[in-house]
Design a protein that fits this description.
There is one protein chain. Helix 2 runs parallel beside helix 4, helix 2 crosses helix 5 and helix 3 runs antiparallel to helix 4. The chain has one domain: Beta-lactamase, CATH 3.40.710.10. It is α+β, with helices and mostly antiparallel strands. The strands form four sheets. Strands 1, 2, 3, 13 and 14 form a five-stranded antiparallel β-sheet that branches.
Length: 295
């Protein structure tokens, strides 16, 4: 058993106690074991799997490597907008962005902040991201995005635009993007939005309607997938952050960056987790040298 524990991932939230012999003990409440022999051959450049409840890293590969985040950027855009605006505030669209995926905003259109957040998180709309930034003051909004990232501990991240367009100075890492995703999941409102497959929103006068369709084709196709965000540019490759929920495994974040097929990679990883991950709820005390186990 001691050998197994030495090769097992366990909770970061450890409780240190003293026993009657005055030896230091570690109290483990949850132990994870992921069978590495079943690891699939995914195409992603960086992969990170994290248990949401305990924040235990189940698997990591190149998670500190600098990458182009593409539209995964919009997680920080949403967090920043929610901090700076009231959801019911109405803003006027100052310019039309047509590059990449858009929700079809019109210059001069009056629309609620809430609907623009729906636009960036569900439809991955670049025009909605720029509309949010312009409403606050473009440069000031980008500064606030970087402040949001810094406050979350994203030490290897810098943003130059709100949509995720490629720029040598616009970068992040899989680990930093996990920190952003964790913050999004801590917000019940945003967490609910990223699990929506399709919705229609309107301008303030109900004259212009925008149908928003989630890019994540795993939603509704793979049981347990509940978001979170897609991203793609030619330089970034295919990116996908997923929240995977099952009764037996709890909630797990899957970060796949720089993939050739993000959906296939994610499905393979989900199958790996279902087949190779074991979670033990324990109440064990283990001495510092792992040579004594007390049930």
């Amino acid at each position: 058993m001691a050998k197994m524990l030495a090769n097992t991932l366990y909770s970061n939230n450890l409780k240190i106690e003293k026993n009657l012999n005055n030896k230091d003990l570690i109290r483990l409440d949850k132990v994870f074991y992921l069978d590495q022999s079943q690891k699939p051959a995914f195409s992603a450049q960086a992969v990170l799997l994290v248990d949401v409840d305990t924040r235990v890293i189940l698997y990591r590969e190149n998670d500190k490597r600098r990458v182009y985040p593409a539209s995964l950027t919009k997680i920080i855009t949403a967090l920043t907008a929610k901090k700076l605006f009231d959801l019911g505030e109405v803003i006027e669209v100052k310019r039309v962005i047509e590059e990449g995926r858009v929700m079809g905003l019109y210059k001069g259109e009056k629309i609620r902040i809430e609907n623009l957040i729906y636009g960036i998180l569900i439809h991955s709309a670049n025009d909605a991201a720029f509309a949010l930034a312009d409403a606050y003051g473009y440069d000031k909004f980008i500064d606030q995005m970087n402040k949001t990232a810094q406050d979350l501990g994203m030490k290897q991240t810098n943003f130059t635009n709100p949509a995720g367009f490629d720029d040598p100075e616009h970068y992040s890492t899989a680990y930093d993007l996990y920190l952003a995703s964790e913050a999004l999941l801590d917000d019940p409102y945003l967490k609910k939005i990223v699990g929506i497959r399709e919705i229609t929103v309107s301008d303030e006068d109900y004259r212009i309607f925008h149908t928003l369709v989630n890019v994540n084709k795993l939603l509704g196709e793979v049981p347990g997938v509940a978001g979170i965000k897609t991203g793609y540019t030619p330089n970034a490759g295919e990116n996908l952050i997923s929240l995977y929920k099952t009764k037996s495994l709890g909630e797990i974040l899957l970060i796949v960056v720089g993939s050739k097929d993000r959906f296939k990679d994610t499905e393979q990883i989900i199958n790996w987790l279902n087949q190779g991950l074991r979670i033990y709820n324990l109440n064990w005390s283990i001495s510092q040298g792992y040579d004594t186990i007390i049930r």
